């Protein structure tokens, strides 16, 4: 409190709520298109577009993604975060397709940069779309996810993404030490200007359910990700995660999921002051969709409220599958 001693009837807070105009005048947080990063699930021609739990979101071919990127630039969106749908035949124990410049991510990046050079594109760094066991890292013989070997693979993947044109790489795997290693690998390969958006504070969450369907990992995934993603009960540990990543050279920090973890958005932003991104994950989108389809509320109103609350909590940007739609609502 800033030395404020108001009391009723001198102070009536409703005075500043009485019209649209006055509410707008005193609004503390706003969402603008440039705050929004469009989440995009890529697919090969011939693979299915529909994602059943996420009506309104479709997997996009490379051509469709390039068209979307062009529209995103015109609409003033902040960027696009790309993820590939990968069928079982493109998966193996080593996640080899992650290092292939001709994979879906690479082809999409090149097509986007050709059609919409100004689009900011963010590439996820993690092996889960490419491994036959669906984990973000390499698996040892006893089934544990190997940290240091995985970090080497992630470095290769990050350099591959940079080579195909990504502006930002976003390690989402939660291995220890990967941000520093990726920074070094990028610099050695001449990509000093490629930024790292670290999924620094990422929880082992049920809210990723629809995403695993979307990228084709659901059937593949053996067990769960709790030996590397964080326990949802932990906040102090999240601050340590963020501190390590800042020290290792992260340019931006992410908190994920979003809505149920807004306390962490606030704390990470307050503590570090780095550009802080919140991810409105697949399950959050699915909840908004399902509830609105059940007649519980209006999708657009609930979506815009949630996005505004991310801003209020301190997020500088939000990854959402509804970015283009929200930007339309903001400008119409
Ligand atoms: N590295 C995987 C990854 N990258 C982004 C998401 C989730 C995105 C979403 O739910 O929208 C996940 C899922 C997971 O960790 O299992
Ligand atoms: Mg970490």
Molecular structure report:
The protein is an alpha/beta fold. The chain has one domain (31-331): Aldolase class I (TIM Barrel), CATH 3.20.20.70. 39% of the residues lie in helices and 14% in strands. The chain contains 11 helices and 10 strands. It has helices at 20-26, 62-75, 104-115, 147-164, 178-188, 209-215, 236-247, 262-272, 282-293, 299-313, 323-331; strands at residues 36-42, 79-84, 121-125, 138-139, 145-146, 168-171, 195-202, 252-256, 276-279, 317-320. The strands form 2 sheets. The protein has an 8-stranded parallel barrel, surrounded by 8 helices. Helix 8 links the parallel strand 8 (252-256) and strand 9 (276-279). Helix 2 crosses helix 3 and helix 4 packs across helix 5. The protein is globular, with a radius of gyration of 20 Å. The two termini are 37 Å apart. The mean pLDDT is 96. Residues 124, 126, 128, 136, 172-173, 208, 211-212, 225, 281-282 line the site of the ligand NCc1[nH]cc(CCC(=O)O)c1CC(=O)O.
